[in-house]
Amino acid sequence: MSYCRRGFMMKKKTIFMIIILFLLIILTSCSQETIFNNSSNSNSEQDRENDEFEKLINELSMQYDASIFSDKYKFGLAYSIEIQENIKDDKIVVKNVLLNDIYEKDDKIYAGFGKFGFRTIFFILELSEDQKNNIINEPGFDYFDDLNIVLKVKEVEKPELIINAVPMPENKAVYDIDFNDNTLVVSGTLIDYLFISKNDFE
Asked: How much is the pTM?
């Protein structure tokens, strides 16, 4: 093969490699733009859902003239006495609670709700018969994080001891009694609740 022919082939390969590299740059740029756009759309959708959720909570608060229980307590950013003084004998809206149980005691119906985090708060609330039936028959109640409650606070207590139970085989359990550092129990009456499904925002 002559020197000119070899030079021509090398030049042809170089041009081909430059074209391939240019195409790869374009594809990478398009891919990054698509990922960025998808991320932006996802964030925008999440922001929209958060705004709608907060709007519903604010409407619930205004409807019952109730203060919105701050999420800061969930993360332990307050002493127990601050929580006790802030919500005692007050109507409050508590967002994103877990329904633990509904039961009867002394001819009254109660529901236990929990808000968990560094600062754990249990709400033991008296229910009416209609409220009990509505909650039990509420469809889709597996989405616990969408449950929001309005309550009239009667008392805020801090138990001195906490009993933890660890399930064992054959319907047995190991119990552990410990001093209570971060748990409060709020008793009162359930005024209303708002179950918000993810489908409500679609």
From this structure: 0.68
